[in-house]
């Protein structure tokens, strides 16, 4: 079962350390089955409870996972290289449409905002012991949640969407738990879940969001949480419609103990209406960052949810960073209240480029997806070849491998760096690179 590797030790800590050494050295491979507890206890001449304690420690550390009668096995190792490194560097003369960043032209200037915040700070510097969430920030965030139909709940602040999601998962789940994630989906999230010792369960998506049947299968298989992007899904641009939201709510209603995490990072850059899945019952969190509309480096995300979850997250946050800078919170308040960004104009700008590229590809017989946001997802038959051909044609795109688990090969094109004049030549290059239509859809 273990090949040449011998687990050693007389105490639980020694047995656990022996297994960890085997995993660290590569002698125990990801997915490798460990001996049943009684069998290992007999081999080592110890009480089965000692082995049980060792296995429990290993599970808590995310080293192994146990699946009932199928026994315990070494967990699949988190990727040693982040998905973000699966990229193509754009050499001189090549246009980079791969990075997923917003158009700097559409971001508000920050000089006057920070000057005003600095003036306020000089009059009254925030100190230890104050509320972690600025009162005006919380009021404005809650008003925006109310406008979008998000149920009532307290407001918290995190350092971006991924920080909020990580904190929520950490206060509710334990290593070995399964999390339903969109596939294709946000590469950073697909890295985060296994890094927390959790098991990602891929859920197929189409242009209207996660497929209800796929979510039902994941939850029926024991997933303890599900993460859904409401609008501007990365990388496909999917947007949850009213009908899809109703169907997903029906699935979730059959699993009231499952944690629901919704990410609405597209707020401020999309024209499509929000259709939140949560009804305010059970465990839920709704996250909304300012990165895409107001600036990635602001590192601010507002979130709301059931009181217990928000309290747990803020309580754990107090023991780490303490709070998200109230200077940054005040800067965002000024951006929100001064109308520094016109969401309708921003959405129209991205929409014109995105929709224009999708239509141009359709005229060339190329399947492409992008209902909202700033990305277009193009299924291809040969991902590596398509990326290479586009690079040769002067365009650097993102390989689909950064964003997928079971989904088919594809490329992602970010439209924030192109103009309307670029659409036709870019569509020509993508059509040439994509080759014949693939046999399967992106979901």
Q: Helical stretch count? A: 15
Rg over C-alpha atoms, rounded to the nearest angstrom: 24 Å
Strand order, largest beta sheet: 4-11-10-9-8-5-6-7
What is the 3D form?
globular
Average the pLDDT over all residues and give the rounded result.
92
* Uncertain ranges: none
Structural class by secondary-structure content: alpha/beta
How much of the residues is beta strand, in percent?
Answer: 5-15%
Give the beta-strand count: 15
Termini distance? Answer: 37 Å
| H and E string | HHHEEEHHEHEHEEHEHEEHEHHHEHEEEH
Helix share bin: 25-40%
The major sheet is characterized as: 8 strands, mixed
Per-chain topology:
Layout: H1 12-25, H2 37-44, H3 48-60, E1 64-66, E2 72-74, E3 95-96, H4 111-123, H5 135-147, E4 155-158, H6 161-172, E5 178-183, H7 187-195, E6 199-206, E7 209-210, H8 212-220, E8 225-229, H9 242-253, E9 259-263, E10 284-289, H10 291-294, E11 301-305, H11 307-318, H12 326-337, H13 343-363, E12 375-379, H14 383-392, E13 395-396, E14 398-399, E15 410-414, H15 423-434
Parallel strand pairs: 3-13, 5-6, 5-8, 8-9, 9-10
Antiparallel strand pairs: 1-2, 4-11, 6-7, 10-11, 12-15, 14-15
